[in-house]
Amino acid sequence: MNFHAKELRKGRISQAGAIYSVTTITFEREKIFNDFKSARLLIQTLRQSELDQYSETIGFVVMPDHLHWLFKLNQSMKLSALMMRIKGRSARHINLLRQSSKPIWQSGYYDHCLRNDEDLLKHMRYIVANPLRAGLVSTLRCYPHWDCIYL
After folding, report:
1. Using CA atoms in the order 130, 32, 86, 28, what is the torsion angle rounded to 10 degrees?
2. Are 136 and 61 in contact (CB under 8 A)?
C-alpha cells in the first residue's frame, strides 16, 4: 500500500501527558542537517519547546534528512500544534541561516503514542542508534546531534 501524509492523520489523537515518538522528514529528503548549524538550530527549537513548557524531551536524534523525537506532551499543547510550531520555527531559523525561502519539511509526520507497558528505554535506545545503523559513525560518541535523559 502507498500511504500519504493525510492517511497518517486518520485516527490521530492528542493526549496531554502522553509520551510520543515522532518522526518528521525534510522536504524531498534533502540532507539539510548535514550542516552543523542547521542541525543545532533544530535542536534549539526543541529546547525552546521545553522552556515554553509545551513538551518534555526524553530524547532525540537529528539525522541528515529527518528528526526522531521522543517527548511527553504537556497540558497546554495539542500534538498537531506542537509539530506545526517545531517545524515552522525551525524552518524560519534555518532559512535565515541559509538565506533561502525553500521548504524545509515535508508536510505531515509519523507519530506513535507509547503505552504504559512499552519499554521506554528500549525505544529510546533504538532512536539514538539511528546514526550507527545508517553507517554515519562507528560509535555514538562521534555523532553530535542527539541527546537523551537516560543515556
Report:
1. -90
2. no
Q: How many CA atoms within 13 Å lie on the side-chain side of 42?
A: 29
CA 1 centroid distance within chain: 25
Query: How many residues are listed for the chain in this entry?
Result: 151
Give the cell for residue 128.
539514538
Evaluate whether 120 touches 128 at the Cβ level (below 8 Å). Answer: no
CA–chain centroid gap for 104, Å, is 13
pLDDT of residue 12: 61
**More confident site: 74 or 16:** 74
Helix (H/G/I), strand (E/B), else coil: 80: helix
In this predicted structure, what is the pLDDT of residue 11?
52
All three cell numbers of 132 = 550507527
User: What is the amino acid identity at position 8?
Assistant: L
Fill in the DSSP letter of residue 53: T
Q: Which residues contact 74 (CB under 8 A, 6 or more apart)?
A: 16, 17, 53, 54, 55, 56
Q: How far is CA 45 from the centre of its chain?
A: 10
Distances (CA, A) of 59 to 21, 22, 107, 115: 9, 11, 22, 17
Q: Enumerate the β-bridge partners of residue 112.
A: 21
pTM of the model: 0.89
